[in-house]
Write a structure and sequence with these properties.
Length: 222
Amino acid sequence: MQDSYNKVFENNRQWVEEMKSTNADFFKNLAEGQTPEFLYIGCSDSRVPAEDLMGLKPGEIFVHRNIANMVNNIDMNVNSVIEYAVSHLKVKHIVVCGHYGCGGINAAMQSTDLGLLNPWLRSIRDVYRMHQEELDAITDQHQKFDRLVELNVQEQCINVVKAAAVQKGFVQNGYPVVHGWVFDLKTGTLKDLNIDFEGILHHIQKIYDLTESTWSVPKMEK
Ligand SMILES: [Zn+2]
């Protein structure tokens, strides 16, 4: 146990040397500030490291992770992250990244009392309820599990779009754009779900609009 703990600091020393060998000013530049183009909202799962799978370095992604990459409407944590990333860091892209084999999604498909986790998982059960017809029609359990992972990403993208900062940023600047991805643990590949961001914006605008804007298409009647 102590060995694995000590190894972290040895790893860190090696990493510092490695980064300096490619760019002597790497940490000097890092200390000067951040201008990441991406906000990444992903799962806490240890097998899904944001920077590694995107091939990006420190300073290039603003990251928020929780169980099953959820964007709950009253979660101050994720909502503060979104607000800061959009209003202050001016990120161009917001990514919600789920992953196949997600333990959080799997837990939400079971009839088990998991104590404190129940309210968190309930939001995933809500996603199942919203897409019950499609999911119930899938007889293969693995396929059903995979599809719920994808639909959960889609619904969390919609929750991101509900944020005032995201709507206002898009109306004023044309960004941030929201993307839904799924990471495949078995192959290491990222799949872009090609979420129709503008379509979602306009679809939910009647109910969730916070901009008092006419947007780029005629607004639906309220
Ligand atoms: Zn997960």
